[in-house]
Amino acid sequence: MSVTIKDIAKLAGVSHTTVSRALNNSPLIQEETKERIRIIANQLDYTPNYNAKSLVLDRSYNMGLFFTTLSNGTSAGFFYEAIRGVNSVIRDRYQLIVKGIDDYTSFHSITKKSFDGIIIVSQSDDDQPIIEHIAQKGIPLVVLNRPVDTVGVLNVLSDEEQGAFHAGAFLVKQGHKKIALIEGRKGFKSAQNRKDGFDRAMGHYGISVPAAYRLPGLYDLESGHKAMQQFLSLDEKPTAVFCCNDEMALGAIKAVFESGLHVPKDISVVGFDDTVFAGYVTPSLTTVRRPIEQISKEGALRLLGNIENKLHTTEQVLLRTELIVRESVQPLQA
Amino acid sequence: MSVTIKDIAKLAGVSHTTVSRALNNSPLIQEETKERIRIIANQLDYTPNYNAKSLVLDRSYNMGLFFTTLSNGTSAGFFYEAIRGVNSVIRDRYQLIVKGIDDYTSFHSITKKSFDGIIIVSQSDDDQPIIEHIAQKGIPLVVLNRPVDTVGVLNVLSDEEQGAFHAGAFLVKQGHKKIALIEGRKGFKSAQNRKDGFDRAMGHYGISVPAAYRLPGLYDLESGHKAMQQFLSLDEKPTAVFCCNDEMALGAIKAVFESGLHVPKDISVVGFDDTVFAGYVTPSLTTVRRPIEQISKEGALRLLGNIENKLHTTEQVLLRTELIVRESVQPLQA
DNA sequence: AAGAGTATTGTTAACGTGTGCATAGATGTG
DNA sequence: CACATCTATGCACACGTTAACAATACTCTT
After folding, report:
1. pLDDT in tens, B205-228
2. Which residues, including other chains, have CB under 8 Å from residue A270's CB and lie 6 or more apart?
3. What is the mean pLDDT of residues B300-326?
4. Tens of pLDDT along A170-187?
5. Omega of the bond prior to A129 within 30 degrees of 0, cis?
6. A96 in B contact zone (CB under 8 Å)
7. What is the pLDDT of residue A235?
């Protein structure tokens, strides 16, 4: 069928062992023998059988890239950037195997033999069982995007607190003093972090935020819309609103227009996430960008480091977010 | 280290051959023996070593999903839908290996041993070499999204001509008679197909499209913007414009607003592709949706059929597009 | 010139699984 | 009861590769 090292051995008049060593550039083999064997291998268009290699070397050349879900809810842009980032690091060193965690009925088949390492892009606490399963099996692992404190697990994510701080600071620097907040979904760590960052900014600049300027949200269009309606019904309306994600910001903007006012002329709005549509809506959205691609690059890089040096680094890495300034915020001159 | 069939054999007091047969549910083995072995296997938490299996069975359990590029230009939504579609069919039968074709420096490593089948989501003629390499190696292959006539290759794509026809027909049915066209990038098959479909619709309903109502485009924002400006400078402006993709439609809409007119009140606009942002822009875009997810499902399904029945079907399958009606088109009452 | 050391290659077994053939026992048949 | 047939299992090898150990030839030292 296909060419094996034994075929090459015959033609070269050596043992298959010598061929194996030659092709792996072992120092044991004479340089000219190597060269002769390489030439024959090329002529025959030899490709090693990776299954055989895997069997004896006890590694799979596979890198798992697992998402919380492929079928429900992962946003396309998020997904795309994550794969791009990881792929740019992995390239041809490993095969990139993409999976949705919710496609697994049992983690039974996830073993050290089938994955040299695994990258989990986690978007939910529900990923905890698989994280523990993988950690317990001793497979090198990095969890991206969500804080995790299982021992022996690398963790790379964006510093959302700091991102929200900058967003808040930006509004203040634009002259805003009456700043409201639409919070994220209760119970989500991201919601807490974003709120904390915002509060720290307000504290830092000595801006006080009355209770009426704080409303809970659910991270969806609807809740942003409703919250903004409430702000608009106040006697003293805020001049700027920080929404804990872009979708709520969109809903909020809609509410402003419906009330006959304008963004950013009458009210400025800031979002969080820099979702794909953020640049396309009118007005385009000023928002905080989580560096997903960079996170996945960094994560893949560190995982590779762990694998190849047989380490078990287990740090948590926070990457800085970026404030994307677009049209939805206007400086306040008053 | 990890549990093998030999370990199970010892515990069960049989040969490893019997264990192998039992776990593969061979009819040669007595039912009660099977059951006994299964129980032991479960207790030991046995997982077969797929590398060993692959070696002897001569199959990899790998399914390749190749994109023209991961790093430049593939749109996130497109990418996401393709993976979703394929994944929903593949699930746990194969590992899904995602690759960018432009990451390959040599196709040398793409062999029958390493991929049981390959799905190419093709966005460019440049993919031809890899398609031929795979076909020549005899690896089961399906090419999605782009017409291909290499022999022995399955081909699933959307019927863009028909999609454009419906878009055109829709405008006519809304009462429009002065309909203009912004074409796609010259040389792209999609550009030709979309134009053909549009023309067929106009012919079908007896609408004539003067030369001044046809302008070339480059599939980008800029060219859509420019073309619309030209239409607006005409004495007799069109009442509707069909843009061969969404980005150009966006540029066109921008031009309309800049001239002080409104979409859809003064001019209706239709796009093509249903890009992620189509639903979020203002006004939201009426457009033609290519069923990428369905295409990839259908493609994966047929590829699987070929692999499992050892067939070499080589048909071309066209799937219907869908007209997504949103806000950018207004009926004309005159 | 003999022994030690070194450079290069070969022999053999191993990784974990599946399968063709042989075998032993059970069952049927005339 | 002798022989054929069938059922359930085991033996031995194969898949393609790497690696520990063995073997050979050559060089150097004294």
Report:
1. 999 999 999 999 999 989 999 999
2. A167, A170, A171, A240, A241, A242, A243, A249, A285, A286, A287, A288, A328, A329
3. 92
4. 999 999 999 999 999 998
5. no
6. yes
7. 96
CB contact under 8 A, A92 and B84: no
Question: How many Å apart are B17 CA and C22 C1'?
Answer: 14
pLDDT of residue B277: 83
- How far apart CA B107 and CA B128 sit, in angstroms, is 12
- Check CB contact of A250 with chain B, cutoff 8 Å: yes
3-state secondary structure of B134: helix
Choose among B97, B113, B276: nearest Cβ to A51: B113
Helices and strands, counts by H and E, chain A: 11, 12
pLDDT over threshold 70, residue B73: no
For the ranges A13-22, A155-164, A223-232, A271-280, which has the lowest average pLDDT?
A271-280
- B5-12 vs B31-43: helix crossing angle, rounded to 10: 120
Residue B252 has what pLDDT? 97
Question: For residue A44, what is the nearest residue in chain B, using CA coordinates?
Answer: B108
Judged against a pLDDT cut of 80, whether residue A334 lies above it is answered with: no
Measuring alpha carbon to C1', the residue closest to nucleotide C9 is A18
Q: Tokens for A151?
A: 């021992």
B84 contacts in chain A (CB < 8 Å): 70-71
Q: What is the pLDDT of residue B276?
A: 77
Q: Give long-range contacts, CB 8 A cutoff, 24+ apart: A198-206.
A: A198/A164, A198/A165, A198/A167, A198/A168, A198/A242, A200/A161, A200/A165, A200/A168, A201/A164, A201/A165, A201/A166, A201/A167, A201/A168, A201/A169, A201/A172, A202/A168, A202/A172, A204/A165, A204/A169, A205/A169, A205/A172
For residues B13 and B37, what is the distance between their CA atoms, to the nearest angstrom?
10
Instruction: Provide the mean pLDDT of chain B.
Output: 94
- Asked if B240 and B256 count as a contact pair (C-beta separation under 8 A), the reply is no
The SS3 of residue B65 is: strand
Instruction: Say whether pTM exceeds 0.85.
Output: yes
Answer for A4: CB within 7 Å of strand C: no
**CB-CB neighbours of A103 under 10 Å:** 17
Q: Which nucleotides of D are covered by protein (CB under 7 A)?
A: 7-12, 14-20
- Residue B16 CA to nucleotide C19 C1', Å? 12
User: For residue B54, which residues of chain A lie inside 8 Å, CB to CB?
Assistant: 51, 54
What pLDDT does residue A232 have? 98
Nearest Cα residue in chain A from B57: A51
Kindly report, residue by residue over B290-302, the tens digit of the pLDDT: 999 999 999 999 9
Q: What CA–CA distance (Å, rounded) separates A41 from A30?
A: 16
Instruction: Compute the distance between CA of residue B332 and CA of residue A135 in angstroms, rounded to an integer.
Output: 63
pLDDT in tens, B123-157: 888 999 999 999 999 999 999 999 998 887 999 99
pLDDT in tens, A274-283: 987 888 888 9
Strand C nucleotides with an atom less than 7 Å from a protein beta carbon:
7-12, 14-20
Q: How long is the CA A29 to C1' D30 vector, in angstroms?
A: 31
**How many angstroms separate the CA atoms of A303 and A314, rounded?**
10
**Which amino acid is present at A239?**
T
C-alpha–C-alpha distance, residues A233 and A126, integer Å: 39
Q: Are A278 and A245 in contact (CB under 8 A)?
A: no
pLDDT at B65 over 80: yes
> DSSP secondary structure string, A127-177?
GHHHHHHHHHTT--EEEESS----TT-EEEEE-HHHHHHHHHHHHHHTT--
pLDDT recorded at residue A151? 81
Helices (H), chain B: 5-12, 16-23, 31-43, 50-57, 76-90, 128-137, 160-173, 189-204, 221-232, 246-258, 292-308
